[in-house]
Amino acid sequence: MKSLVNSSPTICALVVILATVIHFPVLRCQETQPYDVCHQSVQCGDIEFKYPFWGLGRPEYCGHPGFQLTCQFNVTVLVLESVDYRVLDIDSSTQTITLARKDLWSIICPEYLHNTTYNSTLYNGDNFDQENASLYNRCQDNIPGLANYQFSCNVNGTQSDGYAYRTSLITPTVNNLLVQCNSYITIPVDRYFAIQLASGNASESDMRSALMTGFKLEWMANNYECDQCSRSNGRCGSNSTSPALFACYKRGEGISCSFIGIMSLLSIILCRKLRLHVTPKGPESANHQIEIFIRNHGCLAPKRYTYSEIKNMTNSFLDKVGQGGYGSVYKGQLPDGQLVAVKLLSEATGNGEDFINEVASISNTSHVNIVTLLGFCFERNKRALLYEFMPNGSLDKFLRGDGFHLDWNVLFKIAKDIARGLEYLHRGCNTRIVHFDIKPHNILLDEEFVPKISDFGLAKLCKKRESIVSVMGARGTAGYMAPEVFFRSLGGASHKSDVYSYGMMVLEMTGARKHNNTCSRSTSEAYFPDWIYKQVEVGGDLRDYGVTTKEEEELARRMMMVSLWCIQSNPTDRPSISKVVEMLEGSFESLQVPPRHFETSPTMAFQGTPHSSTQSSSGERVSTVQAKISLPNSHESS
Asked: What is the Cα–Cα distance from 479 to 467, expressed in whole angstroms?
């Protein structure tokens, strides 16, 4: 009996399987038969649909909540946020649906005004060549200078004027002109039509055509899991008791479903009687996951070092080059002479989840602006990561104002390269990687000041092109963390959360030049988006920011405008990181001042006490209470 207790937990499962195969006849899983309907598609008019959509005879368990379709006079209709949309096309191969506003199908001025909004945890509109247009309705008088954007409005027999404008180009001046209009709505349109709007060449007929052409959304309803399920001849659906959970329904082959349930219960009881631990916990569990990672990645996995080897290459941790909430960083040297940065994690840092996460995330990357992981060490509570050595350290130390600072050309190149690195993480990898902790402290600089994104302890891998990321609790560093990360009512964390963090970091890069030139805490207002917004809006004097030439002024204003676009409160108003790269590399004249749709804290908050925070398993970086967004000193938040 003692040897059985000490043996592998797989004995329990083996006993059950053998008993099942030897003693019981082949039966059919009758319980799956009701779910066979999930394999069938349903049609309304020209639209044929299956998972995640349901309705019209397809039971709810064959779909996903939020994807119910109805058929109205042979027209397929989807309801999003209480607004009816005509479904123009469904493409299951790309998980794309094309929609048109039902209330704008035949008229431009709807009786009831609703913005075009959707649940960003279920739909993503970023992957398509489209922009928002704003339709201003029920305006009282002709507005001078906007005649080219005017159309006639007739609501319930009442005639008035309306105006259509490309949302991204609405400046404070235009906004002041349109304030007399009672209300407006926004709606995604094809970018070609948005360009027509911007030039004032869009006719009323063009507008009607654009509204009837509709816009595209990518749905995100366990797309990867459904693909896997379909390839294994299963039927995609949802859990009958928890509809938000994905379920793959398969026809049983060879064993009674009820018998499987009974034997599974018996196996659990047997294993508990024998006091066998089915799943290891703590360091053993993390070590098991590391072993699985190495096995799955084969020769592509980074090299694993022993703790004694780590001590040797760092000369017993003699040269300390960095410190953070996660632990310390030491300079080391590999046997071949290559210099490395050894990130030694604190023994109190979590249960290994963040460590494994960082190894798995960064092992999937290869980009000039992403730090290279050369190896790791995992021996129970001894954990270390080996990175290429960055002689200039982190960007953080060049933004403090206590030493050497970077000129505008170098700052601009760093900002552009970081955006390229993020673009690679969001679009260039096989899976989208959301970093969740973009800040100056996590940007390392090589000998030529080429920036490299580091510290992937909080990163999340998204299957395929899914946008919304499931995260537990707040994730990131106070001051850089996007509001939707902790205020879930704003739509949920996504790759746009990285865009927000990037914008706050670039704002700090621009404000740091003013701090470096004045060396006075009284000028800390330069760090706040509201103050910088005013400088951009009125074309304020930037000499306090170290600007000495017209070229530097353009670089500074470009960085300011792009960062202000990135920190828009609503994630859907922020550009994708690909668009950010385009804005940084494109014509300066084409850049527009963004709307002032962001939250800021009073100036005194910058000089006050640090934000209250809790310590995540990766260090001191999670803000728990933050009603307003402020930008702290990077060395205070690291």
From this structure: 23
Q: Cα-flanking dihedrals φ and ψ of residue 534, to 5°?
A: -65, -40
Residue type, 182: N
Which of 376, 379, 371 is CA-nearest to residue 303? 376
d(CA 598, CA 131): 20
Topology of 282-388 in CATH? Answer: Phosphorylase Kinase; domain 1 (3.30.200)
Angle between helices 191-199 and 204-213 (to 10 degrees): 160
How many CB atoms within 10 Å of residue 586? 12
- Cα end-to-end distance, the chain, whole Å: 54
Alpha helix locations (H) across 527-610? 529-538, 550-566, 577-585, 604-607
Contact 153, 164 (CB under 8 A): no
Where do the CATH 3.30.200.20 domains begin and end in the chain? 282-388
- Identify any residues that bridge with 158 across adjacent strands, giving them in sequence order: 155
Q: Give per-10-residue mean pLDDT for the chain (638 aa).
A: 43 47 37 68 89 89 90 92 91 90 84 79 82 83 80 76 84 80 83 84 85 90 80 81 76 44 49 42 55 55 87 93 81 92 74 69 81 86 89 87 77 95 81 87 92 86 59 70 77 86 92 52 49 71 79 90 91 91 88 75 32 33 33 35
CATH classification number, 395-637, choose in 3.30.830.10, 1.10.3210.10, 1.10.510.10, 1.10.287.110? 1.10.510.10
Confidence at residue 347, expressed as pLDDT on a 0 to 100 scale: 63
498: enclosing H helix or E strand: helix 495-518
**What is d(CA 102, CA 87) in angstroms, rounded to the nearest whole number?**
9
Residues 344 and 384: beta-carbon distance below 8 Å: yes
Contact 613, 623 (CB under 8 A): yes
Angle, to 10 degrees, between the axis of helix 529-538 and the axis of helix 550-566? 130
Distance (Å) of CA 511 to CA 482, 501, 504, 522, 634: 19, 15, 10, 13, 12
- With 0-12 CB in 10 A as exposed, 13-18 as middle and 19+ as buried, what is 272? exposed
CA distance 18 to 411: 66
Compute how many other C-beta atoms are within 10 angstroms of the C-beta atom of residue 449: 15
Residues making up the annotated binding site for ATP are 343
Q: What is the pLDDT of residue 358?
A: 75
Positive/negative CA dihedral, 55, 56, 61, 63: negative
Q: Point out the annotated binding site.
A: 343
* Nearest residue to 175 (alpha-carbon basis) of 585, 604, 537: 537
Question: Where in the chain are all domains bearing CATH 1.10.510.10?
Answer: 395-637
Residue with tokens 């996951």: 289
Task: Assess contact for 518 and 546: CB atoms under 8 A.
Answer: no
Residue 150, burial from CB neighbour count under 10 angstroms (0-12, 13-18, 19+): middle
- Sign of the CA dihedral 145, 147, 150, 155? positive
pLDDT for residue 316: 92
Write out the two tokens for 459: 């990163």
Count of alpha carbons within 13 Å of 630, Cβ hemisphere only?
A: 23
Q: Residue 567 has what pLDDT?
A: 92
DSSP SS3 for 279: coil
Residues forming a β-bridge with 54: 68
> How many whole angstroms separate alpha carbon 533 and alpha carbon 540?
10
Could you please report the per-residue DSSP string of 595-614? P-------THHHHSPPPPEE
Distances (CA, A) of 284 to 214, 276, 301: 53, 15, 20
Residues labelled as active-site residues: 437
The pair of three-digit structure tokens given for residue 552, joined into one six-digit string: 């530097």
The torsion of the CA quartet 312, 318, 322, 327, rounded to 10 degrees, works out to 60
- What's the length of the chain? 638
